[in-house]
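Trying the structure run again after the queue cleared.
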Amino acid sequence: MRLTILFAFAVAAFGQAPDNPYDTLKAGLEDGNPAKRIAAVLALGVARPQPKPVAMVEGMLTDKDSGTRAAACSTLGDMKSRASIPKLREALDDKAGEVIFAAGKALYTMGDPQGREILIEVLVGDQAPKSGIVSSSLRDARLKLHDPKAMLLLGVNESAGLLGPFGVSVPIAEMLMKDNQASGKTAAALLLATDHTEATRKAIEEAFDDKNWTVRVAALRSAALLDLSGEYSKVAALLDDKRDEVRYAAAGAMIRLKQSAPPAAARKK
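Done. Tokens:
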């Protein structure tokens, strides 16, 4: 009991946990299992676009697994990393359609015209004039329009339509909701990422201890996006969670909570 109190005091006083969140994420990014690498990449999506987390994500744009490369593109879009626009443009030449689409979507969210061209090409197919930047592998991306899971990536099915306006990353939602343990609580925890009430803070804090790992990940993501710095010690404690996905989410949340808040003028944009 005394050691627990001392740990909480040390974290509150110095803002540090025994484990480095960057080390946790680095291990995930280097894991031999692509699913673990994807989870680690997506966990960084809550971080502000500062050099270290951005560099970690950009390093995964050359991963041998196309799903990991696509996750890296999506994460850079979630981070609004404008410094990564040149690398995202390079990703438009990827051989995998899902990577091209993810890069185009990320560019589009940051106002880059090449992103718009990609989305239009996916939408209208061969009717659009060839721009020179559209790879033939986009044919595969268009075919995925008939696949319900691919529709989620496009944000046009019912769940994505609900989640999208609330700022929920579609790849994160897809990763969590496809697990058979996911529930309505998982979706609720994701959706509360824009609600700054005390009731929500308390609910998220309780969700850190939920027996369902997808709920814990969703709660960690919302805690980060809500900048609940008062929950830092509870977030840090989840670096010891038995699920890798939860540990990655905790590490990403710790990085976000330790980053300085943007100026008020920047937040209004």
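Confidence is low (pLDDT under 50) at residues 1-18, 126-137, 141-167, 264-269. Worth checking whether this holds up in the mutant runs.
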